[in-house]
Design goal:
Layout (H helix, E strand, L loop, with lengths): L10 H7 L10 H5 L4 E7 L5 H9 L4 E5 L3 H11 L5 E4 L2 E2 L4 E8 L12 H6 L6 E9 L1 H5 L7 E6 L5 H6 L2 H6 E9 L10 H10 L3 E10 L6 E9 L5
Parallel strand pairs: 1-2, 1-7, 2-3, 4-6, 7-8
Antiparallel strand pairs: 5-6, 8-10, 9-10
Length: 238
């Protein structure tokens, strides 16, 4: 979407689009590195910004990138040509396997299976123009069923309000994941989006408990929290 997790959204980008990002005093990578992550599943990979960042923490991990936008898929494939552990899937992830509409934004990270709300358009007019395109929607569990997911798994979702739709088709992946990083909205930015509390309840069903925010973006005028990157973790005894 507009923001990225602290550490892989650079200062120039934040300044350009007018974001307020709160940094922790200690780099979050130190904490994440205490987990033995060997598989990363990147849903809503865009051009690979998160992949680049997470592989600085887990450089030997295999990473499965899901992204439906053709231009972004091409950039991901170029990166994958230099990384044998990166796999690219040109799909939107959802609750079923079918062709579906996808709303491509002028600012590609704001693209979504859901239509953009009026508040989003007013806050970020440069991303307001959208084009409906047809993409392949696939269930994450079905796509990954033929792949070996080794070691502990980190699931990342950056799908602009369509999180519940993705999770409905990723129940087996969720049950196996040690960590999940999920962009969450605190105010309505997409039509029919998942709410933060509903996401917390859904992750908890899979044994993943809300563990805090990696970053948070505020309305630059009012200071109201708009969205952020939440982390969920599975306790070792769960």
């Amino acid at each position: 979407m507009i923001s990225k997790t602290v550490g892989y959204c650079n200062r120039a980008t934040r300044t350009l689009i007018g974001l307020e990002v709160h940094r922790s005093k200690r780099d979050v990578r130190h904490w994440l590195s205490t987990y033995n992550i060997e598989t990363v599943i990147d849903v809503g990979a865009n051009a690979g910004q998160f992949a680049d960042w997470i592989l600085t923490i887990f450089p030997t991990a295999q990473i499965f990138c899901f992204e439906p936008l053709p231009d972004c898929v091409q950039k991901l494939k170029e990166k994958a040509s230099r990384r044998t552990t990166m796999h690219v899937f040109p799909f939107a992830c959802g609750e079923t396997s079918r062709q579906t509409l996808f709303y491509e934004s002028a600012f590609s990270p704001s693209s979504s299976l859901l239509q953009m709300g009026d508040l989003h358009k007013s806050l970020y007019p440069s991303s307001a123009a959208t084009t409906a395109i047809t993409v392949e929607e696939r269930k994450l569990d079905e796509v990954l069923a033929t792949h070996v997911l080794r070691g502990e798994i980190l699931l990342k979702l950056d799908v602009q309000g369509a999180e519940l739709r993705v999770l409905a088709g990723a129940q087996e992946v969720c049950k196996r994941s040690r960590l999940a990083i999920c962009e969450v909205n605190f105010t309505p930015l997409y039509r029919g989006q998942a709410g933060f509390e509903e996401l917390c309840r859904t992750f908890k069903v899979f044994g993943l408990i809300f563990a805090g925010m990696l970053s948070q973006t505020l309305d630059i005028e009012s200071g109201q929290p708009l969205f952020g990157d939440a982390i969920f973790r599975r306790d070792t005894d769960s």
